[in-house]
Amino acid sequence: MALQESGEMYLENIYMLLQSKSDVHAIDIVERMEYSKPSVSRALGILKREGYVTVDEMSHIHLTELGLKTAEAIYRRHVILSSFLESLGVSAKTAAEDACKIEHVISNETLEAIKRHTESGE
């Protein structure tokens, strides 16, 4: 089943949390995303069922191989889009916020064109 935008947001946030701490718990996601505990619990259940995350006996959340691959791709899109928007003169804060919205709907073709354009310095 294709991952929905909300699922992508959860994976990206779990990925980012794992970059700064070794043990991620549901409460970390609640605090980072400012969602309710029941919402995070439901989302984690879906991500677990779909094979993107596992939760161990200590309630540590881990990305599966599929989850890691997907989260890295989402994060990569975010970084490319943020960089591109900033190169246009958009503030870093607005660029990051807009990249969060765009990263879930942009085609790979368009993303790769933006990446090439950004890397060429045009």
Task: Describe the fold and architecture.
The chain is mainly alpha-helical and 122 residues long. It folds into 2 domains: 5-69, Winged helix-like DNA-binding domain superfamily/Winged helix DNA-binding domain (Arc Repressor Mutant, subunit A, Orthogonal Bundle); 73-120, Diphtheria Toxin Repressor, domain 2. It has 6 helices and 2 strands. It has helices at 5-20, 26-33, 37-49, 65-87, 92-102, 108-120; strands spanning 53-55, 61-63. A two-stranded antiparallel sheet has the order 1-2. The longest helix is centred in the middle third of the chain and has 23 residues, at 65-87. The radius of gyration is 15 Å and the shape is elongated. The model has no long low-confidence stretch (mean pLDDT 93).
Would you kindly provide a brief summary of this structure?
The chain is mainly alpha-helical and 122 residues long. 69% of the residues lie in helices and 5% in strands.
